[in-house]
Every structure is written in structure tokens, then in C-alpha cells.
Design brief:
It is built from 6 helices and 7 strands, in the order ββαααββββααβα. The chain is an alpha+beta fold.
Length: 153
């Protein structure tokens, strides 16, 4: 079983610094604590809409992800109370929010970092390679699958 659900120290992942100093925002640091008492279902609905929107905007990118089949990746924003399991290769891609204490079966890859770093990557404000080599982003598992996902986003 994947042990990605356990809380991770805020400034360290697997001994690697993920402080995201240049990306730090006072507002972003409040998101994790603000989400802790909330149920996941409203956030899950927003995640469903976001994945549908991305698939509609970039259908060719998601068609290339089909080679991943039913394998999934974990996106772990270490300062949030949940992780995101994404099945990008399915006919209808899925993103499921999972509470940290719940176990997951083995993922083909895990991408970990602070929320600010992950958002900057998705928005194109930061380069994934730069985040990786500065240790603000940690990638475990199938690097090819992660690259396919990055190219789709």
C-alpha cells in the first residue's frame, strides 16, 4: 500500500527541502489549515469540474495520456490535508481527493511539493525542471508518466 497519506513535515519531504521560499504567499499558507475541518465533497466537485474543463480545452493532450490506461499518479501538496489521485489515461480522466490517513494502492508516480510550487507549475509561472532541481518538487516513480501529465497540463 502506498504510504503517501501520512502527513509530511512542512519543510521537508524525504529529507529534501520543499520550502518554496520564492513562491511563498501568506494567503497560500492559510489554505491548508482552512481546509482541514471541511468535508472533501465540495472540493471534489470543484476538482471534477476542473478536470472536465482541462479535458475539453486540450482533448489531444488527454488522448495521448490514454497510454497510461487505468494507472494513477498521486499529486501531494504537502500543506493540504489531502492528496490528489489522478487517473489521466481513462476515457473520462478522474481526479479524486483522498484524506491523508486513508491508504491508496500503489501509484505509478508521486509528485510532492508545497501548494504554491504546484500551482506555479500548473500556471506556467515556474519551470518543472527548475522546481525539481531546487528540491521544491519531489518526484518518485515513473518519470515518463509524470512528463506525459506535465505536457498535458
Amino acid at each position: 500500500m502506498l504510504n503517501a497519506m501520512q502527513p509530511v513535515a512542512e519543510s521537508s519531504i524525504g529529507g529534501k527541502d520543499v520550502s518554496g521560499e520564492r513562491l511563498r504567499s501568506p494567503l497560500l499558507s492559510l489554505i491548508g489549515p482552512a481546509l482541514r475541518p471541511l468535508p472533501l465533497w465540495p472540493l471534489q466537485r470543484a476538482a471534477d469540474m476542473a478536470v472536465r474543463s482541462m479535458q475539453l480545452r486540450q482533448p489531444e493532450a488527454f488522448s495521448r495520456l490514454r497510454q497510461l490506461g487505468d494507472a494513477f499518479l498521486v499529486i501531494d501538496a504537502v500543506d493540504l490535508p489531502f492528496v490528489m489521485a489522478i487517473w489521466p489515461g481513462m476515457e473520462k480522466p478522474r481526479l479524486v481527493l483522498v484524506e491523508r490517513q486513508k491508504p491508496l494502492p500503489p501509484a505509478i508516480a508521486i509528485v510532492r511539493g508545497k501548494l504554491a510550487s504546484l500551482l506555479a507549475l500548473i500556471e506556467g509561472k515556474e519551470d518543472g525542471d527548475a522546481l525539481f532541481f531546487s528540491r521544491e518538487l519531489l518526484i518518485e516513480g515513473d518519470m515518463t508518466a509524470v512528463l506525459h501529465l506535465r505536457n498535458a497540463i
